[in-house]
Amino acid sequence: xxxxxxxxxxxxxxxxxxSRYYFELLRQISHLNNCAAEIFxxxxxxLFRFSCLPRIKVHEFRxxxxxxxxxxxxxxxxxxxxxxxxxxxxxxxxxxxxxxxxPLVDSTKVVVTHxxxxxxxxxxxxxxxxxIKEMRARQFARADAIICPSESTRRDLHxxxxxxxxxxxxxxxxxxxxxxxxxxxxxxxxxxxxxLYVGSxxxxxxxxxxxxxxxxxxxxxxxxxxxxxxxxxTSSEMxxxxxxxxxxxxxxxxxxxxxxxxxxxxxxxxxxxxxLYEGFGFPPLEAMSFSCPVLLAHTSSLPEICAxxxxxxxxxxxxxxxxxxxxxxxxxAKRGQKIERGRILASSYSWEKCAAKTLQIYxx
Length: 364
Known about the structure:
Blueprint: E1 2-5, H1 17-30, E2 36-39, E3 47-48, E4 56-57, H2 74-84, E5 90-95, E6 106-113, H3 118-121, H4 129-142, E7 145-148, H5 151-160, E8 168-170, E9 194-198, H6 207-216, E10 224-228, H7 235-243, E11 250-253, H8 258-267, E12 270-273, H9 282-289, E13 294-297, H10 302-306, E14 311-313, H11 318-330, H12 332-347, H13 351-363
Helix pairs in contact: 1-13, 6-11, 9-12
């Protein structure tokens, strides 16, 4: 079986969970028998430099061709790939990595992955919303199969687009567990216990509500709040921090290498993930794999993915978030139950399973 992935995600460093998904999918599928995967990028070999993965020098995976040029040649690759892909011959499966299908690729089947409906749920946040919807609609119409990372995302897909249910499938992601170096295992992060927030702080991630609930729960007497990833704190975020008198306890780390992220998960009292919408959500499962309990908004895919292994709060009720913070920080009996259940749950998500189910869809 000959499979083509295009370059859009692989040539950008800031795609986060989407990059992790395609990288791991390629790596696992490339190891399956009688299966050759290619990424065509148009330029010289280079290194994969994803913040979510160890730095890996990639030349090939068993029969796979990988050419990764770096994000600054993204537009050049757009042109080159569009011109050259039609001459690459016939593929059994074409799996484009975002919402643009190269129109002249010769393939028996087109399979796409629909990651979430954040654009559709929060259109005001995205200036190019209409063009994205048009691209998605065209791609879904062309696709022979559409993979969703959760049943929640699959329902959203059918709510916003006219897609036959017969060609939609749910395939859970695996967990890209950060790697911790041996010499840093016991290195402490700061002098005080801390709660952890990981990832983007876009509006629907609900970070502002976390700041206000952290203050209302009066947790600053015992805990810091460590904020990893998502870039430098904005002026509006810092204004809220100052307004709530949290300047001494809220710490921002704009980027978090794997080693630091692993230590943070291992040392945090709690991961708080208050996002209003997720198609899957990596950080809660990553945290569980490090025996870190998690507090989540009871919304979108999160209850489906994390089941009874997490603490939850009601998104429409700020008091529920305050109560959830207190319970998940101080109820040791429940914390122990969630930690144990979380370790078991996290171990059930693997990239091997994800790749095997994806390959079944390719072959159907």
